[in-house]
Amino acid sequence: MGLRTEDMRKLWMMLPIFYFSGIAESLNYTAFMALFNQRFGVQYLPYIYIFEAAIMPLEGWLLAKLANRLPKAKMMTTLYLIMIGLLAVNGAVLLGFKAGGIDFRYYYPILFLSSNFVVRQLTLLLWSTAFDLCPTQQAKRMMPVFIASTTTGGITAGLLAHQIGKLLGTEAVYALAPVLMVLGFVFFRKALARYLVPLTLKEDIRLKTQRVAEPKEETQLPAGYYAKQMLRSPFLLCAVALMTLMPAVYFMIEYQYFTAAEAKFPVEGDLTSFYGLITAIQFTFCLLLQTVSTRLMNWLGASNMLLAITVVFFGGFGLTAMFLNQSLGIFMVSGSYAIFYILLYYIAEPCYQLFFKMMPISKRDGYRYFAQGVAASGGILIGSLLSLLHSFGLLQLSPLAWLGVAVAAILVVVAWFGRNLYVRELVKSVQSLHADLSEIAGSFIGGIRSSKALSAMLGYLKHPNDYVRELALEVIGKAKDSAFLPHLIGMIGEESSRIRLAVLRAMNLQGATIQDLVQVASFLEDEDPEVRAECVKLISKATHLRSQSHFFIRVKLLDNHPKVVHEGVKALYALESEESYQACDEAIIKMLDNGGEWAVYGCHTVADLKLHTYAAWVLSLLDDHRPAVKVAAAHCIGQLQHIEAIPFLLTMVPLADQEMRKAILQAFVDMGEKALPALLAYVNHANPFIWNAAVTALAELLDESMLRKQLVDPCVARMLASTQERALPAALNELGMKGLAELADQRCAELHQALVGGAWAVMAKFADERVVATLREATEDESDEVRDNALEVLAEGLGDRRLALALLELLKQDAATHSSVKQEPLLILQEAKSWSDDWLKDIASYALSSLERVDMREERKFLTMLDKVIFLKQVSLFADLSVDELGLIAGIATEEVHEDLTYLLRRGQSNAAMYLIIEGNVELSNETGEGETGTIGVLGPKQAFGETTALDGSPSSITAQVIFDEVRVLMLQGESLSRLVRLYPEIGIGLLHASSARVRLLENMLLKMA
């Protein structure tokens, strides 16, 4: 079923909730319906439904107020307890009636309303719990199991009701429901405490500290707005009609079922037993349906699924009407009711949500809630009012059934028109929601090739809006139907490269003729390399024309773009063109040898084809000076499972940037079980960054039991190992080296975070990943109360108790201060020279050498690496970067000295570098409209200029000239700066602020000159 370890752990706690609640819900429903129908009268069922529809808005308002006043976990617990209380009170009253031999007829409407409230709210509570406690993807994996658990509970309840109803009576069936609810509550409370409470730490604090006065409500659109918009939209009117008529038909069949059953079984115990049997059959059908429902949805699509449901409703009511007065009547109406219930609540309800996916996201919920409110009340009222025709004696049950057939027929017509209106609405929405619509369209239209909606997409291939055409092409492409090929070939001459790409992706060449292939091959000469590469991929799939495809692709091995060559090599291997393997090898060697972007695609080619003969060559690319090449090489090594590279990759981790560290970690994961022995050798490594990389990779590769055996003890020991690193900043402060002390303090914090990060990575495998992520964020929160609450959750032993307590101790060490030095500062510096961290060793050595030669700074002409790091730390643009990241920048920054009056930038000339002033001054100036030169400002040490034009190499808008003697600067090339901005967005924000300040200076200068 695709379940993972964390899924299984959560299932063991949550399945009992769904199982016991499923039993309780079905027992409650079966019993109160039998009691109401027998003791109050099934003819009054429409009245009670009408009254219920009237009070539902009040119910929703009260629950919303309760949700606003209580923390989420407490709200859910309170609601569950309210439902247990209602069932328990009703059960006690019913048992009292039975024991005392008394009855009070007008109690049963109260029983109906309160019990049906439990049925509605318990279902909503269970599904909201599942989605709140599980991330989206996990919820998708686990939902079939939750549904199976609930339906199994329904089957169990049906069998219990069938037996207990006969033996002990309907009151005993009802009284058993709260007992089962209590059993479910035990697991419900544990699940909330373990998974939901940590997720809502911040929200709970916000609720506790909010003001007594109600917050100012955000401006919301009135309900009238949505009503007007729906009246103007045929599609939305059709959707609301479908959502209204479907429950109306269901309520009509429900009335037929209860009325026919009461007539067939006049004895209350027999009636309850029959209800129980139908419930068991009903949920057995539901369980069987769940095994194929996903495939049905993918094949039919939501639109066709809804149409199919309406056809089943029409057929079921038709059979009921034909056989109602015959011996088979009770079986027809019971079977129809059971199927209608499952199709409505388990299949149709999720499909409805696609109606609103095309609405603007800011208004989507407004449309959804308004439509669902109208449909819920309207469906109940229509079904109830039509059923009243029988209650009033105006129609017999059989003519009422034929009336139900007529309503079901209208429902089929509405579903058919709604299915056709969908495509038109899809195109109307395309500009605002293009990114999501192709997936929505695929979900709604489905995979049936003959679908009229899919054929209608052809009409939009000539639409003037490129977004509409691109969407139509995406939907056509998902059908994988070669019948559309002639239409797509006709679009070869499109001007937009995006459309040409979409055309190629929509094509299916299976069954294409040689003439078709020749026409498609014209894309191989397209000016856009993306289009050429996509064409190569497409032609490689024409396996029935293998020799012709090979001919066209072989030529592209000489293309001037590496991506096209990359796709060409892969295509020839896919076609198994052995005669071209040597040419492919030459192309791969060319890519790896050319370096840069060619080498990146060369690594991708080797990785995708698993060409192990190139492993040594790829390994050598880890020494390339270009970061993108190193990242691609690391990815390739992982795909090749070249475990001999693990030690070398681990030694790269401490000095690697974020992107490279992620690539190395992913490489270890890609190596799989083969990497375990090598990685386990590093679980006690002294360097926290290397330890972190090894432990994080092992946490991904090992299952839970192996993690507990092989990783927990080494992790705990490594985290609790005594360390003297924190003494170094204090020693440097005592020696008066404040800059070095700040740098050492930051480095110690980074080492500490590496240990903490490794611990959290392991913890995430023993507990819910989302809970761990939220808890980690809470331990770093600004609020003391949030941090304390997070530490309290950790102290309870989240996941693994030993690991949680060790992590807690590590976090407490982080909060402790280290202001005093217990031993001589010089001795600490001497000891630090032998520590495992290179930066702390360099800082200690630098400090000792500075003490030995006081005049060293004056004699040194150029900055050392550490000097650059200390300087960069003082520049506001880079103040928030780690020491490793500062080291990376220092490594690519070139120190330059320029004489007085030297021009570093000239207005109108292209610039490819950013400058950071170390010493000296630079004047920024510009020309006025009259040709005069005006000074914008004078920059001094730790200030930057040239950053905006360096990013794109554009001409400089200002002139920068050295003044007042020589200037020393650090120069960063634009290519390096662009990558820094991509990796560290905070640098980009800093550059934006600096540019804005420069613009303000320029504006002020122009105003003064004016």
Q: If you had to describe this structure to a student in words, what would you say it looks like?
A:
The chain crosses the membrane at residues 12-35, 47-67, 79-100, 106-130, 142-161, 173-192, 235-253, 273-292, 304-324, 330-348, 369-388, 400-418. Keywords: Activator, Membrane, Transmembrane, Transmembrane helix. InterPro entries: ARM-like, ARM-type_fold, cNMP-bd_dom, cNMP-bd_dom_sf, MFS_trans_sf, RmlC-like_jellyroll. Strands 1, 2, 3, 4, 5 and 6 form a 6-stranded antiparallel beta sheet that branches. The N and C termini lie far apart (74 Å). α1 (5-41) packs antiparallel against α4 (107-133), α14 runs parallel beside α16 (466-479) and α22 (562-574) packs parallel to α24. The protein has 1010 residues and is mostly helical. The chain contains 45 helices and 6 strands.
Beta strands, count? 6
**pLDDT under 50 segments (min length 5)?**
211-219, 431-437, 855-860
Question: Pairing-aware structural class of the strands and helices?
Answer: mainly alpha
Helical stretch tally: 45
Global shape: globular
Kindly state the mean pLDDT as a whole number? 81
Question: How are the SSEs ordered, and which strands pair?
Answer:
Elements: H1 5-41, H2 45-69, H3 72-100, H4 107-133, H5 136-167, H6 170-196, H7 201-209, H8 223-232, H9 234-264, H10 268-323, H11 329-352, H12 361-391, H13 397-428, H14 430-445, H15 452-456, H16 466-479, H17 485-489, H18 497-506, H19 514-521, H20 529-539, H21 546-555, H22 562-574, H23 581-594, H24 596-609, H25 615-620, H26 627-640, H27 646-652, H28 658-671, H29 676-680, H30 688-701, H31 704-710, H32 712-720, H33 727-734, H34 738-766, H35 769-779, H36 784-795, H37 801-815, H38 825-832, H39 838-852, H40 856-859, H41 865-873, H42 883-892, E1 894-898, E2 903-905, E3 913-927, E4 933-939, E5 944-945, H43 947-952, E6 959-973, H44 974-983, H45 985-1009
Antiparallel strand pairs: 1-6, 2-6, 3-4, 3-5, 3-6
